[in-house]
Amino acid sequence: MSKSNKASKVFQLMIERDFCSQWMGIEPLLLEEGHCKIKMTVRKEMLNGYGILHGGIAYAFADSAFAFASNSYGRIAVSINGSMTYSSSSKLGDVLIAEAIALNVTYKTADFDVNVFNEETMEVCYRFRGTVYRKSEEIEV
């Protein structure tokens, strides 16, 4: 099985049970081993009291890209650390792209960067960095 085919199969298995990512309306754009791009459109129910994307939703979106990329190797990976910088806000109707890229992958851990940017302006709105613990257990695809 090719690496991109494995990443796609892992994504399909995960998204079927990931009701939060489904609720966000996440669409895959690129699924490769250690690399993923996903897309979502900011909806009314995602806004905070100031009419901008709620920080928790922005974090969840980046975290989903992180999860899909870190599990794309075919081993179960679970987050042990994550932090986010909020550079600019997003508003109703904005289409956001989250791109997760592996920085360092060892047998037990892996580090990823996720940039979330506005599809129209290409401005990076949110920057996420996370670390996963990689279990020895394989994902059955």
Features:
Thiol Ester Dehydrase, Chain A, globular, 3 helices, alpha+beta, 141 residues, 6 strands, 6-stranded antiparallel β-sheet
Overview of this structure, please?
With 141 residues, the chain is α+β, with helices and mostly antiparallel strands. It has one domain (3-138): Roll (Thiol Ester Dehydrase, Chain A), CATH 3.10.129. Helices cover 27% and strands 43% of the residues. It is built from three helices and six strands; from the N terminus they run H-H-E-E-H-E-E-E-E. It has helices spanning 3-17, 19-24, 55-71, and strands at 27-32, 35-41, 75-86, 95-105, 109-118, 124-138. Strands 1-2-4-5-6-3 form a six-stranded antiparallel β-sheet. It is globular. The termini are close together.
Q: What is the ordering of alpha helices and beta strands? A: HHEEHEEEE
| CATH topological fold name | Thiol Ester Dehydrase, Chain A
The span between the termini is 10 Å
Structure class: alpha+beta
Kindly report the average pLDDT value.
Answer: 96
Instruction: Please tell me the CATH architecture by its name.
Output: Roll
Question: Briefly, what is this?
Answer:
The protein is of the alpha+beta class and 141 residues long. It has 3 helices and 6 strands.
Layout of helices and strands, plus pairs?
Layout: H1 3-17, H2 19-24, E1 27-32, E2 35-41, H3 55-71, E3 75-86, E4 95-105, E5 109-118, E6 124-138
Antiparallel strand pairs: 1-2, 2-4, 3-6, 4-5, 5-6
